[in-house]
Amino acid sequence: MALKRRRREQVGDDELELVPVMNMFLVLIPFLLLSASFYHIKAINTSVPVLASTSAHSSKTPAKSDAKVTVIVELKDKSVVLTATCDELSYNDLVKLETEIAVKNPDAYPMEDLAQHLLFIKDRYPKSDTLILVPTQQVVYGTIIQTMDTARSKNNAELFPNVVLSGKVG
Amino acid sequence: MALGRNNKKPFNPPKLQLTSMMDMFTIILIFLLFSFSNNPEQMSLDGQMSLPESTSKLDYKDSIRLVLTKNELKLDGNVVATIKGEEVVGLENLYDALKNYRDVADSLKQGVKIGERKEHILFLCDKNHSFKVVNSIVKTAGRAGYPNFQFGVVEKN
C-alpha cells in the first residue's frame, strides 16, 4: 500500500527538463535570423540590341491583325513618346499608333496613360510582343524598371513581354 | 510573533514556466527553417545599395553577377570599375574580364551565333543611377558578347 502511494507521488513529480532544449533554441534562432532574408530578389529578362543577319521575308503578306508591331517608347524629360514599326503595316497605320504623353511631374512618369496606350496597340495587333525602351541619359534606373513593368503586363494581361533596352542613336 | 513564525518557512525557489516560451521558439524556428528552404540560395548585397521594386515574379538564374553600387562596379565580387559622378572609370577592365569569360565559354561551345547564346548577366543596380551610367555598362557587356541580361529587382508586395 505504502509502495503504491510512493510510486504515484514519483510520477506526479516528474517534469520535462526543457532547459537544454531552450539553450539549443537560443543558439539556433539568432543564427537563423542573421542568415535569413526578408526580401525576395526577382529578375527581369532584357537584352541590348546586337548586330544580326537579316532573315529572308516570306512573300505571303499576313493579315493586318496578324502583324507583329514593335513599339518604341522614348522616355524623355518632359514627355513619353510612343512610335511603332512593322514591315507589314502601311505608314498611315503606323502613324495612328503614335502618341506623346506629357510628363507633368518629373518624379512620376505617367505609367497609367502609357499602359492604356500599350493596351490599345496590343488589342489591335495581339501578336505583338516586343517593345524597345529608349530612355534619355538622365532617366534613373528605377523609372526604367517601372516602365518595363508597365510594358510587360496590365491587370494580369500580357502586353509586351520582350523589352529591349536601347540608348538613343544619333 | 506570527510574523516571526512566517519567516522561518523554508524557501522554495519558484519554478520557471518554460512551456509557453518553448511553443514560441518552436514556431519561430519552423518559420525560419521554411523561409530558408524556400530561398536556398541567398546573395549578399551592399548595405548602401537599394534595388528597384518590381512586379516581376521571375526567379533569377545565377550566372555572371554584375553589381553596380553607388560608387563601384563589381564583377563576380571583384571591383572592375568605379563611378565618378556620372562617368564609369575603368570600363575597359569590365570589357577585358567579360571577353575572357566569353573566350572560355566559346572554347567550350563553338558554332553558336551571338543572338542565339543563352548565357546572360545578372545585373544588380542601385535604383538611383542614371541611364547614362547603366547604358555605358550594358553596352560594354553587349560588345564583349553578353547582350542578354537579367535585371535583379526586389519583389513588390
Describe this structure as you would to a colleague:
The complex is a heterodimer of chains A (170) and B (157). Chain A has 170 residues and is an alpha/beta fold. Chain A is 36% helix and 22% strand. Chain A has a domain at 67-165: ATPase, nucleotide binding domain (Nucleotidyltransferase, domain 5, 2-Layer Sandwich). Chain A contains 5 helices and 8 strands. In chain A, the strands form 2 sheets. Chain A has a 5-stranded mixed beta sheet. Chain A has a two-stranded antiparallel sheet with strand order 6-7. In chain A, helix 4 runs parallel beside helix 5. The longest helix of chain A has 17 residues, at 19-35. Chain A is elongated. Chain A starts with a helix and ends in a 5-residue tail after the last strand. Helices cover 36% and strands 22% of the residues of chain B. Chain B has a domain at 53-155: Nucleotidyltransferase, domain 5, CATH 3.30.420. The radius of gyration of chain B is 27 Å and the shape is elongated. The interface between A and B is large, with 45 and 56 residues.
Shape of chain B: elongated
Largest sheet of chain A: 5 strands, mixed
The first-to-last residue Cα distance of chain B is 69 Å
Please compute the radius of gyration of chain B using only Cα atoms.
27 Å
Helix content of chain A: 25-40%
What is the assigned CATH homologous superfamily of one domain in chain A? ATPase, nucleotide binding domain
> What amount of the residues of chain B lies in strands?
15-25%
- Which residue ranges of chain A are poorly predicted, with pLDDT under 50 across at least 5 consecutive positions? none
Number of helices of chain B: 4
Q: Can you name the CATH architecture of one domain in chain A?
A: 2-Layer Sandwich
By secondary-structure content and strand pairing, the structural class of chain B works out as alpha/beta
The total strand number of chain B stands at 7
> What gross morphology of chain A would you assign?
elongated
